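Quick illustration, no need to memorize.
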Amino acid sequence: MTSLEALVGLNMCLDIGGVRLGKLLAYFGRPENIFKARREELMTVFGIGEKIAAGILSVRKERIDKEFKLSEKLGLKIISRESTDYPRNLTYISDPPIVLYVKGEIQEEDALAIGVVGSRRASFYGLSSAEKFAVDLCGRGYTVVSGLARGIDTAAHTGALKSGGRTIAVIGSGFNRLYPKENMALADSITRQGAVVSEFPIDAAPLKQNFPRRNRVISGLSLGVVVVEAARNSGALITANFALEQGREVFALPGKIDSAGSFGTHELIKQGAKLVTSVADIEEELQIGILPKSKAVPVPETGNANAVFPELTPQEASVFFLFHDRAIHLDELAENSGVEISKIYSILLRLQQRNLIKELPGKQFMRVHHG
């Protein structure tokens, strides 16, 4: 059994997510070793009780092989955190998916992504606003992330496709049970300008409990999430809560004060979400501007970064000058800068976009020296 096969098998087990997987790997070292263990040994791992241990032991190699054959038949790629094309943004959340089933292609540029979510029962105002935001975001170089649901999600994906930009749809079921069925053609179009992704096994049904898990992936893939329309108990508010927990920014589009579809967004604004009416408002809050990739400019080893790159914020400049002649791990950067990991990563993305630093394997970063 390969490492990826073992991870697919573990992903089939109920109640095993990224956190429990981390504990299992800390004890057993490699994913394939987990399936070699006896029940008693599995249960020595904190959080792995008799039920979960039995679930692990019930997964047969034949079932895993069938999953890979199905994925090949459907044109899917299965990736894990060990894969080089696993989305970088997801590696920084507390409970990243064990594996992702991907149809289409996830590219490095998709790290600059914004989630656009909202009500399934959207108004014309909400639908047109979601589509316009998606068009404008793609025009500025962002990837639009949403959930392929009816309403706002559909409008966001449609806007991205119309603009010729990239979009990623995160679904709450397996690919054999894609939901809603009327969006199958839309999903197919998305695979040609981005990707449709799921963390659920191929035959998993679109169960109610799957969608909060899907929502954490939408926010986890994104630097920030725009809530276009949301009623009081909308699933979009769950996505917003995940975004806050993950250190992402939350943006809300204002609506009519007597509109039920705006109650949730107005509540978010009251609680501190950034009120936005344009992409410029998003970039102002993120302190990011998507700059065209150009020839590198020589950078001094010490001194005032703002004098050389006036577009850098003081926080960006302070992080930049932590780099000298060696690679620095993300944890060390967070410790030395005093900035939370979830926040420092968005700063590192901005410095990479300006070709000032580069990312190395193992969550390490290094200054780009220009001569």
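The CA atoms of residues 138 and 165 lie 5 Å apart.
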